[in-house]
Amino acid sequence: MTNEPEQQIGVGTQDAFQRLWTPHRMAYIQGESKPSGTGAGDGCPFCSLPAKSDEDGLIIARGEAVYAVLNLYPYNGGHCMVVPFRHIADYTDLNGPETAELAELTKRAMTALRTASGAHGFNIGMNQGEAAGAGIAGHLHQHIVPRWGGDTNFMPVVGHTKVLPQLLADTRAMLADAWPVD
């Protein structure tokens, strides 16, 4: 035991913790830009993105029925999604050409991510419905998350924080340049 008084930590007092501030995530946490309903005209961001330029909408590539776009709140650098232009919620609602093109753009996204960033593997999938974790349940979208050996470190495991070393606009340009063409 020491005779020194206990040091109290107050506002503005430095402690041993390093902080990574990510205030842009508050929009996601608070549900900003989430559609107000289930219809195409209810503020669905996946319906409004195609009207923007590729750079402004973070669109990597466009097909006839679907497009590839970066995720605004990525799990890893390069996390993108393949989204049908048509506002539908369920995978079973895709028609044949949409299903085929969704699969083809998923393959191209994987190729582009391997070329541009050397991804070692991928998590690919869809969350169907709010109960399954879909952030925007009214508009189908398939996630393609690149993975690298050892990419799960103390930050996401202990700190519940992901460090992304590149701006989304730079990631979009890198993937668009690496996107395979027919």
Q: Could you please describe the fold and organization of this structure?
A:
- The chain has 182 residues and is an alpha+beta fold.
- The protein has one domain: 2-Layer Sandwich (HIT family, subunit A), CATH 3.30.428.
- The chain is 28% helix and 14% strand.
- It is built from six helices and five strands.
- It has helices at residues 25-29, 45-48, 54-57, 96-117, 154-158, 168-178; strands at 59-62, 66-70, 80-84, 121-125, 142-147.
- A five-stranded antiparallel β-sheet has the order 1-2-3-5-4.
- The longest helix is centred in the middle third of the chain and has 22 residues, at 96-117.
- It is globular.
- 23% of the residues are buried.
- The model has no long low-confidence stretch (mean pLDDT 81).
State the distance separating the first and last CA atoms: 74 Å
Give the CATH level 1 class. Alpha Beta
Assign a percent range to the helix content. 25-40%
The structural domain count equals 1
- Strand numbers in spatial order across the main sheet: 1-2-3-5-4
Structural class: alpha+beta
List the secondary-structure elements in sequence, H or E. HHHEEEHEEHH
- CATH fold naming: HIT family, subunit A
Largest sheet: 5 strands, antiparallel
Number of strands: 5
The CATH architecture would be 2-Layer Sandwich
Which ranges are low-confidence, i.e. pLDDT below 50, for 5 or more consecutive residues? none
Shape: globular
CATH homologous superfamily heading = HIT-like
Residue-averaged pLDDT: 81
C-alpha Rg (nearest Å) = 20 Å
Amount of beta strand: 5-15%
Count of alpha and pi helical runs: 6
